[in-house]
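Quick illustration, no need to memorize.
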Amino acid sequence: MKPIQEKGSMFKEGEYLFATEEGVTIEELRTLFGEFGITKLEPLIIRDRSYLLVLKNDPGLPTMEKKASGFGKIRYIERNQIMQKYNTKL
């Protein structure tokens, strides 16, 4: 099966998914990413401590990875992928 080819990015602009170590507060996350204009910061999976972050001013993944690494309490950070429909007809 091949994905249906559509124009555009494979990622949602300004949206990131990440998970933290135990004990990190929302206030710490707002301080960490606040300079980029947070429009949404919400938990996705409570036990996993994963979040959806939507930014007004997207600095790009390398900058976000550098911020996360410097903070030292982020397990991973990645861009939010757009789910694609698959063409099931052969």
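The domain at 2-87 is CATH 3.30.70.980 (Alpha-Beta Plaits).
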